[in-house]
Amino acid sequence: MIESLTLLLVCQLAGEVIVGLFRLPIPGPVLGMVFLFAGLLVRGGVPQAMQTTAGTLLSHFSLLFVPAGVGVMLHLGRLEDAWLAIGVALIASTLVAVAVTALAMLGLERLAGRRGSPEGGPS
Amino acid sequence: MRPVGELWVYLAANPLLHLTLTLLAYLIGYRIYRRFGMNPLLNPVVIAIVILVSLLVATGTSYERFFEGAQFVHFLLGPATVALAIPLYNQFDRVRKSAGPLLAAVVLGSLAASLSAVAIAALLGAGPEIVASIAPKSVTTPIAMGIAEQLGGLPSLTAVLVILTGVAGAMLGPPLLNLLRVRDWRARGLAIGVAAHGIGTARAMQVNEVAGAFSGLAMGLNALATAILLPLVWSWLF
Question: What is the count of residue pairs from A and B with beta carbons less than 8 Å apart?
């Protein structure tokens, strides 16, 4: 547990340092994810302890967005002023993005000759 | 016994109170979400935010005071993002098989998300500051704030719009995908990750590991694609 957590933090720190040094347009933790992923490829497997720690952290990933989400209270005034434009733009564009991405992936895959294998889905 | 008022002053200044409240509010949200068969419309993040904002407003507590306690939860967002490498590694064979369509779909989705948001907000009369703040709203928070600043938006407003987008995507994305008859877990995860970053990924992860892995990957690729493409497109448009 402690070893896995330390490794996650080391990857994040390495990501933050590289992003800061080269002013890269991606967040440090995302680069940290790339580093950990590369490490797993080299090692050729995920250690059991890491699998458990990551599983624990990720099973309640959504909890981690709550503190930032409560920040909504700082902008209630501004949101109230332009709520219609903001609300419609957010919801419609999110639906557009979901539809475009999913249909583009399936359509392009079909064009490319169905190399990927479709994976079940909710019944 | 101490007077209750004095105890409140002590507790309100202690990070323990708001850390505990954050976890309790989430657990209540999560219970409700589970009770109703993980219905995406009952997103636990939304329920927790509503409970906490109501409590803070009712007790006159500032967001800064709340965050002193909640920051311990917020901090874990970094290591948890790094940990997304594990589901990605577990699903790597599936990812590699459709790398081309996957990358193209992320780029198209990234442009669709930001340009449709900008067009709709501008058409409905939102000011230039709000339009610029809304443009990167499908991207994970830290990078969205950076892009907004570059485009002349308000980074702190963008942070809120990013969360609202994530919530909208996690709530409305799955029903839309059902409507479109997209059953493939890979395409479902990818779409939710592009449109609704980490909050969408959190939901995908709870439902299916394949969807979770594709969603986490889409979130990272979308951050990269939007950070590179959006400022370019912006300079042509304005």
Answer: 352
